[in-house]
């Protein structure tokens, strides 16, 4: 049975992505140096999980995999410190080990230093061995320990390099998300200011006051969106949960989409919506994207769209649906359209398919699911299942 330490170790090993891969030249260079310093012909870097010992780089033999219970290093690697055994045949820890008895090898001299991650997790050893009995000087023992730390340095450098590459990709996605999600409240802000200007020209104080209030609301939502999306990027997409009135949230979304709603003549029918737990800014971005997509694709056919938003209570959460009367999404395309920059075939609609990719990330960050079905209105029904928290 795997222990908590085993699980932590497996997770740490997985981050380095060296098991099952061809030996890295930098790691091979370190084992060759270890063998040379210690005056032996064989050295190896062992990565040890809860089942196996993985030899990821070696000199003097071809790296392989063996069962953890057969490993000499598995006996000592979890206890930081150097191990030097001049003759393994007379050491109680190793005398019956198959690497000593001749079943696998005939090891006599054995020395190792543990590989400890910066988080303090032991993941394996750098070890040297020989079929002849020998000693290891204190200076060479310290050198072996230093090389073990350099093995970890190489693994960390590889990991950080990958993460930087992934961060650049996420930054590009994030930039697309920000520009996409800011477009609607910005358009609403401009529209409300234009209404206020019209009211000033006609001396309609009520129109001016109402338009300025709505413009102020749109500006405030833009500020919240920028701040929270930046926080969203910093924390890797983890939502900050609070109690949310989904009906009030939808009211803000409809206000931000005022311009395209009026331009298309759309009817937005919002049913009774619940209070839920979630990140207000992320869920507003979610509903904004779903409603904007429904408007955009329904209006593409030239008719005045009808869109319905409904909530259905489940045993352990809520199912939210956004239905439209547009052309719908063919069944074979319903998964593909959630990919970044993907749209349904034949969708002659301005704009990139960033919205549904953003929606999936937000829903999954909340522990939910999202998909597309046929709507009773004749178009697409995009559904979101959010668990109770």
Automatic annotation (TrEMBL):
Pfam families: GAF_2, HATPase_c, HisKA. GO terms for molecular function: phosphorelay response regulator activity; phosphorelay sensor kinase activity; protein kinase activator activity. It is an enzyme of class 2 (transferase). This is Sensor-like histidine kinase SenX3. GO terms for cellular component: plasma membrane. Its EC number is 2.7.13.3. Coiled coil: none annotated. It is found in: Cell membrane.
């Amino acid at each position: 049975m795997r222990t908590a330490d085993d699980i932590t170790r497996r997770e740490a090993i997985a981050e380095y992505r060296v098991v099952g891969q061809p030996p890295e030249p930098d790691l091979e260079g370190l084992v060759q140096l270890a063998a040379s310093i210690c005056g032996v012909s064989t050295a190896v870097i062992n990565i040890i999980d809860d089942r196996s010992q993985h030899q990821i780089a070696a000199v003097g033999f071809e790296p392989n995999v063996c069962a953890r219970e057969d490993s000499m290093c598995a006996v000592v690697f979890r206890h930081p410190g150097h191990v030097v055994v001049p003759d393994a045949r007379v050491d109680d820890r190793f005398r019956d080990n198959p690497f000593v008895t001749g079943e696998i090898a005939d090891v006599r001299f054995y020395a190792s230093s543990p590989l400890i991650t910066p988080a303090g997790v032991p993941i394996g050893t750098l070890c040297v061995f020989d079929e002849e009995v020998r000693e290891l000087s204190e200076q060479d023992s310290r050198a072996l320990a230093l090389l073990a730390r350099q093995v970890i340095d190489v693994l960390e450098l590889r990991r950080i390099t990958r993460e930087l590459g992934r961060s650049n990709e996420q930054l590009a996605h994030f930039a697309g998300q920000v520009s996409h999600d800011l477009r609607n409240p910005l358009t609403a802000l401009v529209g409300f200011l234009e209404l206020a200007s019209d009211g000033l020209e006609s001396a309609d104080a009520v129109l001016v006051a109402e338009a300025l209030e709505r413009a102020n609301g749109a500006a405030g939502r833009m500020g919240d969106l920028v701040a929270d999306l930046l926080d969203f990027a910093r924390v890797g997409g983890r939502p900050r949960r609070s109690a949310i009135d989904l009906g009030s949230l939808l009211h803000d979304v409809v206000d931000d989409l005022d311009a395209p709603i009026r331009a298309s003549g759309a009817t937005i029918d919002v049913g009774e919506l619940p209070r839920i737990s979630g990140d207000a800014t992320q869920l507003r971005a979610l509903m904004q994207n779903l409603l904007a997509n429904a408007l955009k694709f329904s209006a593409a056919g030239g008719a005045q769209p009808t869109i319905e938003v409904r909530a259905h209570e489940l045993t352990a959460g809520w199912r939210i649906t956004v239905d439209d009367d547009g052309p719908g999404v063919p069944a074979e395309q319903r998964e593909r359209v959630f990919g970044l920059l993907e749209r349904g075939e034949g969708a002659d609609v301005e704009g990139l398919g960033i919205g549904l990719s953003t929606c999936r990330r937000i829903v999954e960050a909340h522990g939910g699911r999202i998909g597309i079905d046929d709507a009773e209105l004749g178009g697409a029904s995009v559904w979101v299942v959010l668990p109770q928290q």
